[in-house]
Design brief:
Length: about 160
């Protein structure tokens, strides 16, 4: 587990390319980039931030190595969708994902959120394990914009 030289910070425009690259890397490794991916990754300011969402970045030795977004949801139950979580493959397995998840959950709580929602795929075993260890439980919702989604989860804060 890495504990030194880690900074968890809010997104700023200087991290735009890293936000896209970190996510495109894992998505392209396991799946195909979809229209919904390009919407959020090409323009995170308009698609996520200006709509009331947040993006958290993880820096290791001042280099972006992880990210996660909270996308504001227009939903009766869920406040945010936890989305676009990525940790560089070069640093996976060192506790960065766990710290990132804790930071994102704290960010959601600080904004008054009561419920988080996420969509994923069960082939991403380390991610699903992290979500479950963080308290997310499986749910079934009617629709998703992603072809790759085969699991939906929620967390009551």
């Amino acid at each position: 587990m890495i504990t030194e030289n880690i900074i968890i910070t809010d997104y700023t425009p200087q991290y735009k390319q890293a936000f896209k690259d970190l996510n495109e890397e894992w998505i392209s490794k396991y799946f195909v980039m979809e229209e919904a991916d390009y919407k959020s990754l090409d323009n995170p300011e308009n698609y996520i931030l200006e709509k009331g969402g947040y993006i958290v970045m993880v820096l290791y030795n001042n280099e972006p190595v992880g990210t996660c977004a909270l996308i504001k949801m227009d939903d009766n139950k869920y406040d945010f969708e936890l989305a676009k979580m990525a940790v560089s493959p070069n640093i996976q397995g060192k506790g960065i994902g766990k710290r990132l998840m804790q930071a994102v959950i704290e960010k959601a709580k600080s904004k008054g959120a009561k419920w988080l929602y996420l969509e994923s795929n069960t082939i991403l075993t380390p991610a699903i394990t992290l979500y479950e260890k963080s308290g997310f439980v499986r749910v079934k919702r009617a629709s998703t914009p992603y072809e790759r989604c085969n699991i939906q989860m929620e967390l009551e804060l």
